[in-house]
C-alpha cells in the first residue's frame, strides 16, 4: 500500500505522526487504474475508489470521512482544516491542520506531493505542488499558514514525481518556471527543454528553513506509481499525513 511511510509515536513534548506516500499496489481498481487508485475524477468506478480510500483511512486509523482530500486546481489556495468536510470539498492545493482526528491527503500522478510537519507545535500540512503550484508559490503559502498556527521547526517529506529528464516542455514554459526557481530548468533525456519541479520545490522549502526528506522515485519510470504523462488514462496515488495525539491540539 505505502511506497514509503513513517510512524512516530507521541512523546511528552511532541505530537506523533503517521505520514507516507501510497503506491499503486494493494487496491481493488481494475485496469487501466488497476490497484490502489485514490482519484475519484479519472473515470474509475466510484465504488472501487471508495473501497481504496477506506483501506488508506484504516491504515492511518481514522474514519473514512476523516481522510480529507482536496479539489485540487493547480493554484495557491491554502485551507485550514478544523474538522471533516461539511458540504462541498473545497478548491485548494494545500491543507493544514492542528487536529489529530483527521488525515490530510494530496493526490498526484506526476506532480510533486509535499507533506509538512512540526511535531513540537502539533501542526501538519499536505501540498499539491505541480508546475503551476510551484510557480504560484503554493509551498510558501502553506508554510506561512502553518507558522501562523504556531509552527516553528517544520520538516517536509517530498514524494515521488516526474523527474526532470522525463518532463519535456516548451522552452517558454521552462523559462517561466526558471524565473521563480532557477534550479528547476533542465533538459530531457533527448536534450530538449525540461523542468525538474521537485528540485524547484525542494529549493523553495530549504529557502524557507524547512528540513527536507526527499523520497526518491520518478513516476514516469516506476511501475509502482501512477503517471499521467506515461499512461494518460490512469489512477492517482496520495501523500497522507496524520498527527497523532501528544502535544497537538486535536
UniProtKB/TrEMBL annotation:
Q: List the InterPro entries.
A: Cu_polyphenol_OxRdtase, Cu_polyphenol_OxRdtase_sf, Cytotoxic_necrot_fac-like_cat
Q: Name one Pfam family in it.
A: Cu-oxidase_4
Reaction catalysis annotation: adenosine + H2O + H(+) = inosine + NH4(+); adenosine + phosphate = alpha-D-ribose 1-phosphate + adenine; S-methyl-5'-thioadenosine + phosphate = 5-(methylsulfanyl)-alpha-D-ribose 1-phosphate + adenine; inosine + phosphate = alpha-D-ribose 1-phosphate + hypoxanthine
Q: Does the keyword Methyltransferase apply?
A: no
* Alphabetical keyword list: Copper, Hydrolase, Metal-binding, Transferase, Zinc
GO molecular function of the protein, one example? copper ion binding
Please state which protein family the record places this protein in: Belongs to the purine nucleoside phosphorylase YfiH/LACC1 family.
Give the function comment from the record: Purine nucleoside enzyme that catalyzes the phosphorolysis of adenosine and inosine nucleosides, yielding D-ribose 1-phosphate and the respective free bases, adenine and hypoxanthine. Also catalyzes the phosphorolysis of S-methyl-5'-thioadenosine into adenine and S-methyl-5-thio-alpha-D-ribose 1-phosphate. Also has adenosine deaminase activity.
- Protein's name in the database: Purine nucleoside phosphorylase
Amino acid at each position: 500500500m505505502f511506497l514509503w511511510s513513517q510512524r512516530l509515536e507521541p512523546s511528552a513534548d511532541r505530537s506523533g505522526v503517521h505520514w507516507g506516500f501510497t503506491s499503486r499496489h494493494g487496491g481493488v481498481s481494475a485496469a487501466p487504474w488497476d490497484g490502489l487508485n485514490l482519484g475519484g475524477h479519472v473515470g474509475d468506478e466510484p465504488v472501487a475508489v471508495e473501497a481504496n480510500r477506506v483501506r488508506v483511512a484504516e491504515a492511518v486509523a481514522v474514519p473514512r470521512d476523516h481522510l480529507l482530500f482536496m479539489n485540487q486546481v493547480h493554484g495557491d489556495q491554502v485551507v485550514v482544516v478544523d474538522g471533516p468536510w461539511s458540504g462541498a470539498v473545497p478548491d485548494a492545493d494545500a491543507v493544514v491542520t492542528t487536529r489529530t482526528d483527521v488525515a490530510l491527503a494530496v493526490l498526484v500522478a506526476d506532480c510533486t506531493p509535499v507533506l509538512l510537519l512540526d511535531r513540537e507545535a502539533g501542526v501538519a500540512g499536505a501540498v499539491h505542488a505541480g508546475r503551476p503550484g510551484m510557480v504560484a508559490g503554493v509551498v510558501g503559502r502553506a508554510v506561512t499558514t502553518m507558522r501562523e498556527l504556531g509552527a516553528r521547526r517544520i520538516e517536509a517529506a517530498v514524494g515521488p514525481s516526474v523527474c526532470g529528464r522525463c518532463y519535456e516542455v516548451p522552452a517558454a514554459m521552462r523559462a517561466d518556471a526558471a524565473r521563480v526557481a532557477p534550479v528547476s530548468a533542465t533538459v530531457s533525456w533527448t536534450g530538449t527543454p525540461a523542468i525538474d519541479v521537485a528540485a524547484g520545490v525542494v529549493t523553495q522549502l530549504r529557502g524557507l528553513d524547512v528540513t527536507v526528506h526527499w523520497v526518491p522515485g520518478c513516476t514516469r519510470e516506476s511501475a509502482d506509481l501512477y503517471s499521467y504523462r506515461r499512461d494518460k488514462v490512469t489512477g492517482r496515488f496520495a501523500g497522507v499525513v496524520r498527527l497523532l495525539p501528544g502535544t497537538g491540539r486535536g
